[in-house]
Design brief:
Blueprint (H helix, E strand, L loop, with lengths): L3 E7 L6 E7 L5 E7 L6 E9 L2 E9 L3
Antiparallel strand pairs: 1-2, 3-4, 4-5
Length: 64
């Protein structure tokens, strides 16, 4: 059974609201690149979990 959570975040390039679905069973530390739904620039998404609770979430420019 997958445990998922919707997360809203602001694009670090254009400031638009974006939404992703995170799989809370995919590991305690996750990182991937997702494109902004408005400006299409690459955003590095990283998060840390404790169990199924997100304790750190970051959405940064790919070049940071």
């Amino acid at each position: 059974m997958d445990i998922q959570e919707d997360i809203d975040f602001v694009c670090p390039y254009c400031g638009s609201l974006n939404n992703i679905v995170v799989d809370l069973t995919a590991g305690a530390q996750q990182e991937w690149v997702d494109d902004c739904h408005v400006c299409c620039r690459p955003i590095t998404i990283s998060l840390k979990l404790q169990g199924t609770e997100i304790i750190d979430f970051r959405a940064q420019r790919e070049d940071e």
